[in-house]
Specification:
165 residues, alpha+beta, Aminopeptidase, 7-stranded mixed beta sheet, globular
Length: 165
């Protein structure tokens, strides 16, 4: 049994470790290391960040939204982050988190969610597509990772219950 609850500041050690595990795959983000709590906290929507907790009480994954802009016209548009701990991958935790994040984001008035995913990260692309995201383009050679230019696919999900459809 997996439970979902709001991410709290004292979860940061576990959340940061899961983020580091994602970074270590080389296919999750262009980041090279997780930030400190204060930086991460300021950049993510406070009421839309969640963790999954296993029966043993271990945090198994996390999901959060980052605003795409500070401009008021983009108040309902955010970027999605979903990370699952290496010991919990393949257990549909990412799907559970993403579905929950979508539901909560719509209740909070978000009409567009977007995700930037490396083309090589096929499981993440499939997860997002399964949950209503569609490929709308890509950012070719947007950043270097270990001296190699990386392209990022841009996926988007438009809400059918909030905003203009």
């Amino acid at each position: 049994m997996i439970a979902i609850r709001p991410l709290e500041p004292n979860d940061w050690t576990s959340v940061r470790e899961i983020y580091a595990q994602g970074i270590a795959t080389g296919d999750a983000t262009l980041e090279t290391s997780p930030p400190e709590w204060e930086i991460w906290d300021k950049s993510h929507v406070p009421e839309l960040r969640f963790v999954t907790v296993s029966e043993s009480g271990e945090i198994s994954g996390w999901a959060a939204l980052t605003p795409v802009s500070g401009r008021c016209v983009y108040a309902g548009v955010a970027e999605v982050s979903v990370y699952v701990g290496s010991n919990f991958r393949g257990q549909k935790i990412g799907d559970l988190l993403l579905k929950y994040l979508i539901d909560q984001s719509e209740k909070s008035g978000y009409w567009t969610l977007q995700a930037g995913i490396f083309p090589e990260n096929v499981p993440s692309i499939k997860l997002h597509e399964k949950n209503g995201f569609r490929l709308i383009g890509y950012r070719e050679n947007i950043g270097k990772m270990n001296g190699i230019w990386r392209t990022v696919n841009l996926l988007e999900r438009r809400s059918k219950v909030t905003g203009i459809n």
